[in-house]
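Lab notebook, design round three. We kept the backbone fixed and only want residue identities now. Task for the bench partner: fill in a sequence for the structure below.
Input structure tokens:
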């Protein structure tokens, strides 16, 4: 058993004292009628005399974060889910026995307070305690606000402590579900249906990514944790659910950095009888609405940039953007060898499976992607990297696909969906050839999906967006670990 610190020994002695007093150190149900922020918002404008005449009774509960003991009267600060509020406690109001119980309390203990709202001489809303209830004894001292959780890794590893001492972590934790709820409400009001699709599957498809592999004992087969929700959702379009979405976890067995966690959340949505333009409008609406719902403005400051998320995002073809930066026009009828020569001249590394389109995309990633600041729909991706998107009828080397970039990061990916089963089969075959050439992220053949398309899928638009990155953007969080409550962490030795 580990050795206790001196502070922990003192707290355990206090724990035993509570038992001796007949008090359960770990508490029971307590009626909470009010929260700190609500009390402040409702009564901050009142004067001391007005509050005295009103005699507003409240019942709050929370964690003690600060204590200033002053003989027969003291102040403490209670932190609940919405914030902190000051409490005044006096031996004259609660009696000697209860006041002595309070005096044995430690920072970190959870208590209940029933009292009257008052205004101090310094203008701070305070609850004057009339009834003090011990609820939970904290056996470990909290880390100091500015000194105890300096180790960022520890903040993520022990998120419960981070939420206690770090108001920003708590702000983000509450912001995330608000953003998700805003997306759900926006789509529900447009007639979309939210669904759930399998997390385990036997075919790798829907995205270019490396999977996590697990084993199903009963059937004795290997299975993948899903890397995308795309193909199950498009099967539902075939079945007649013509506007559908899913918000769910995705798993990709890849690297970790500021923008990537192996377990993350996306939304994918599909709308029958829509197309790429429709997906641009929809994506723009989702993001603009979420910004307004959360922050009350379209304007945000993020990564040293000030941008607007108001509707009206820029729309530009990938080839045009490459031409702006390099002067090279990939719309020209050049051979693969010509493109390869340009790539080598511009210090682009070529891989064995590369075709013409891969080179175009490599130019974009090297010379354009990081330079995009304002929200921009980049469309017209090469066919080689877009196995599930419809060809551009004007130039079949490219597809009706876009990615949304904001301040150098991708936020959404969308297509006019490929619904031609013959073309889809040929695309899957091309992916298999890439796989044979060493592209581990190429899709596998999904014959059941091809069969579904043979029954007829309506013309449609589809879009996928990373929820975590959107939360980062709207909360000003510079790393994905700030917006995932329990990010993937390497175990301690």
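Proposed sequence:
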């Amino acid at each position: 058993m580990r050795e206790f610190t001196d502070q922990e020994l003192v707290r355990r002695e206090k724990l035993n004292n509570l038992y001796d007093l007949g008090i359960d150190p770990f508490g029971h149900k307590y009626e909470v009628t009010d929260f700190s922020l609500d009390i402040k918002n409702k009564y901050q404008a009142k004067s001391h005399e007005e509050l005295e005449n009103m005699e507003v009774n409240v019942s709050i509960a929370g964690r003690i974060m600060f204590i200033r003991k002053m003989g027969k009267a003291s102040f403490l600060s209670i932190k609940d889910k919405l914030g902190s509020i000051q409490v005044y406690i006096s031996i004259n109001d609660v009696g000697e026995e209860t006041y002595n119980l309070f005096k044995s309390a430690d920072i970190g203990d959870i208590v209940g307070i029933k009292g009257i709202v008052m205004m101090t001489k310094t203008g701070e809303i305070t609850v004057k305690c009339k009834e003090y209830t011990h609820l939970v004894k904290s056996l470990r001292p909290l880390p100091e606000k500015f000194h105890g959780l300096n180790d960022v890794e520890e903040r993520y590893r022990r998120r419960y402590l981070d939420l206690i001492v770090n108001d920003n972590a708590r702000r983000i934790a509450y912001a995330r579900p608000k953003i998700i709820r805003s997306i759900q409400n926006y789509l529900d009001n447009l007639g979309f249906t939210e669904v759930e699709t399998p997390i385990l599957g036997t075919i790798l498809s829907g995205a270019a990514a490396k999977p996590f592999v697990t084993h199903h004992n009963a059937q004795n087969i290997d299975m993948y944790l899903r890397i995308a929700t795309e193909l199950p959702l498009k099967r539902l379009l075939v079945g007649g659910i013509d506007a559908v979405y899913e918000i769910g976890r995705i798993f990709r067995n890849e690297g970790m950095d500021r923008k990537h966690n192996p377990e993350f959340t996306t939304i994918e949505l599909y709308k029958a009888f829509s197309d790429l333009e429709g997906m641009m409008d929809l994506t723009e609406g989702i993001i603009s609405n979420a910004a307004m719902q959360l922050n009350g403005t379209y304007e945000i400051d993020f990564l040293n940039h000030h941008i607007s998320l108001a509707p009206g995002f820029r729309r530009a073809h990938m080839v045009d953007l490459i031409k702006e930066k390099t002067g090279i026009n990939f719309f020209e009828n050049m051979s693969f060898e010509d493109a390869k020569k340009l790539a080598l001249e511009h210090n682009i590394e070529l891989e064995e499976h590369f075709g013409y389109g891969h080179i175009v995309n490599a130019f974009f990633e090297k010379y354009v992607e990081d330079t995009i600041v304002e929200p921009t729909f980049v469309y017209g991706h090469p066919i080689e990297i877009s196995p599930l998107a419809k060809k551009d009828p004007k130039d079949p080397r490219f597809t009706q696909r876009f990615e949304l970039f904001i301040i150098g990061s991708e936020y959404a990916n969308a297509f006019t969906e490929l619904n031609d089963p013959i073309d889809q089969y040929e695309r899957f075959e091309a992916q298999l050839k890439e796989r044979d050439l060493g592209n581990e992220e190429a899709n596998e053949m999904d014959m059941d999906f091809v069969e579904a398309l043979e029954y007829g899928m309506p013309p449609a638009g589809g879009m996928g967006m990373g929820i975590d990155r959107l939360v980062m953007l709207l909360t000003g969080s510079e790393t994905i670990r700030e917006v995932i409550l329990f990010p993937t962490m390497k175990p301690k030795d």
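Keep this in mind before ordering anything: The chain is about 35% helix and 25% strand.
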